[in-house]
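REQUEST FORM: STRUCTURE PREDICTION
Request ID: SP-0412
Submitted by: Lab K.M.
Chain count: 1
Length (residues): 126
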Amino acid sequence: QVQLVESGGGLVQAGGSLRLSCTVSTISGRPFSNFAMGWFRQAPGKEREFVAAISWNGGKIYYADSVEARFTASRDNAKNTVDLQMNSLRPEDTAVYYCAARFFRDSSLPSEYDYWGQGTQVTVSS
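STATUS: Completed
RESULT:
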């Protein structure tokens, strides 16, 4: 069993920044470092979409084209946290943002992640 809790969402003007955090609790006994992590988002009326993925040790990080060069994902395996720094935010970034965990191998596909947080709302005003 893995529990994920996101924080850091809110309302920001276009061009502003927000930092999302996700704290992971591993009840099954598996260490956090066993899990690849992903960030996804879902806007009203749209499907959940990939934002960023980070490998189990943080050595591999990749992003959706729409956020490349604006968003930065990172993880701290000592603190069981993964963060998403979002800069130069745009109105089209408005969505509920989710972190997700997958045992070992990273992926950009939501269907391949086993554990999800409850989501945090990010709203970017124009």
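NOTES: The mean pLDDT is 95.
Reviewed by: T.R.
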